[in-house]
Amino acid sequence: MQTGVGVLDKAVRILEALQSGSVSLGQLVKATGLARPTVHRLATALEQHRFVCRDEQGHYTLGSRFGELAAAAGEDRLLNAAGPILHTLRNRTGESAQIFRREGDHRICIACDDRPSGLRNSIPTGAVLPMHAGAAAQILLAWDAPERIHQVLHHAHFNASRLNEVRKRGWAESVNENEQGVCSIAAPIRNATGQVMAAISISGPLERMSQAPGRHYAPLVMAAGRYLSDALKRASSGLTEGKGSSSL
């Protein structure tokens, strides 16, 4: 489809050529039929806006900005299903529960259900936290593009080996990363296409959750993440969602 806005039409041709996977600059030139300097200039501009990124071989692929926009677009559906599951998770674990999504170099708390009394880690809705520490940050980063992972790892409290372990086991934990004496457990929430769009987590004091909180809480947090992922898939398929808490 041609809109008459030349630079936009050319940029869309580049993005469409990347839908099937990563390609080299030469392959991108061949697929789009555009001049090599034009492809390089537009791909570089799209990379600056994170619509395009490069893999470890230097090939072009679709960037993380699409995931961020999809997360924002699907946020209403996620929030509609989140309330009961956060409440159930809080009750089952006895700790405050949150949902985070990534926005650029930060993560934002889009929903929470705090422990009602006693010592607790309270993170209000709308709170903006860094991506270099915390279990939710590890989840939001672990399945990201290699280039984006390396950018954060330069100043992160975790390393590539930790993220590889997160991908293998499906959950993350942090102890004394964001704040001394606080730990957290997180798991992914995936959209209908399987991409990680958010992270669900619990957080609380180290003295109550222990030095290895994952052993005790990971199964419950993972179950909550799977429930919300399934809810998003059903909502995306146009099926009616029932209300109430899940069987964590």
UniProtKB/TrEMBL annotation:
<keyword id="KW-0804">Transcription</keyword>
<keyword id="KW-0805">Transcription regulation</keyword>
<dbReference type="Pfam" id="PF09339">
    <property type="entry name" value="HTH_IclR"/>
</dbReference>
<keyword id="KW-0238">DNA-binding</keyword>
<dbReference type="InterPro" id="IPR036388">
    <property type="entry name" value="WH-like_DNA-bd_sf"/>
</dbReference>
<dbReference type="InterPro" id="IPR005471">
    <property type="entry name" value="Tscrpt_reg_IclR_N"/>
</dbReference>
<dbReference type="InterPro" id="IPR029016">
    <property type="entry name" value="GAF-like_dom_sf"/>
</dbReference>
<dbReference type="InterPro" id="IPR014757">
    <property type="entry name" value="Tscrpt_reg_IclR_C"/>
</dbReference>
<feature type="domain" description="IclR-ED">
    <location>
        <begin position="65"/>
        <end position="234"/>
    </location>
</feature>
<dbReference type="InterPro" id="IPR036390">
    <property type="entry name" value="WH_DNA-bd_sf"/>
</dbReference>
<protein>
    <submittedName>
        <fullName>IclR family transcriptional regulator</fullName>
    </submittedName>
</protein>
<dbReference type="Pfam" id="PF01614">
    <property type="entry name" value="IclR_C"/>
</dbReference>
<feature type="domain" description="HTH iclR-type">
    <location>
        <begin position="5"/>
        <end position="64"/>
    </location>
</feature>
<dbReference type="InterPro" id="IPR050707">
    <property type="entry name" value="HTH_MetabolicPath_Reg"/>
</dbReference>
